[in-house]
């Protein structure tokens, strides 16, 4: 059976789905696998650049503990806008809802800078922001 080749935009959306799924499990080692080496993660409270899975777990632990304390169960992607800048670079702006069962804990936005290396898309930088803000005009 021949495999269907995904478009760059679909490949990027798959990376973002993997990010949401691994965050839902608070598995920051798997989460980091969606990033290229030496990513920058900017939140309203911190700037992080984890070097490996153990470092990601350590740096993201305060967020994980806060989420667990509030009963967090999963992350849902509400909107996702992808803008290819070149054959090897892209922006993506995503609005997420973090849930405890069906209860909404918070909505958060994130804008990603992605690069394609050796045929694979990965995140170089992510900056969190208000869920209603998108830096990409549609």
**Would you report the number of β strands?**
6
Tell me which oligomeric state these chains represent: single chain
Return the average pLDDT rounded to an integer: 92
Distance from first to last alpha carbon: 36 Å
Strand order of the largest sheet: 2-1-6-5-4-3
Order of helices and strands: HHEEHEEEE
Q: Main β-sheet, in a few words?
A: 6 strands, mixed
**Approximate helicity band:** 25-40%
What is the molecular shape? globular
Radius of gyration: 15 Å
Beta-strand proportion? 35-45%
Low-confidence stretches: none
Please identify the structural class as seen in this structure: alpha+beta
Number of helices: 3
Q: Which features does this protein show?
A:
alpha+beta; 138 residues
Could you write a compact summary of the structure shown?
By secondary structure, this protein is an alpha+beta fold. The chain has helices at residues 8-24, 28-32, 53-69, and strands at 35-42, 47-48, 74-86, 89-100, 103-117, 120-129.
Q: Describe it for me?
A:
By secondary structure, this protein is α+β, with helices and mostly antiparallel strands. 28% of the residues lie in helices and 43% in strands. It has 3 helices and 6 strands; from the N terminus they run ααββαββββ.
């Amino acid at each position: 059976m021949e495999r269907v080749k995904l478009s760059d935009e679909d490949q990027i959306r798959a990376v973002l789905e993997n990010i949401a799924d691994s965050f839902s499990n608070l598995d920051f080692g798997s989460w980091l696998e969606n990033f290229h080496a030496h990513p920058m993660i900017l939140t309203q409270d911190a700037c992080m650049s984890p070097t490996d899975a153990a470092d990601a777990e350590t740096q993201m632990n305060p967020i994980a503990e806060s989420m667990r304390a509030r009963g967090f169960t999963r992350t849902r992607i509400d909107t996702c806008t992808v803008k290819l800048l070149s054959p090897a670079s892209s922006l993506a702006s995503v609005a997420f809802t973090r849930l405890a069962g069906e209860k909404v804990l918070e909505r958060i936005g994130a804008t990603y800078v992605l690069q394609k290396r050796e045929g694979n898309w990965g995140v170089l930088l992510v900056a969190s922001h208000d869920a209603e803000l998108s830096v990409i005009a549609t």
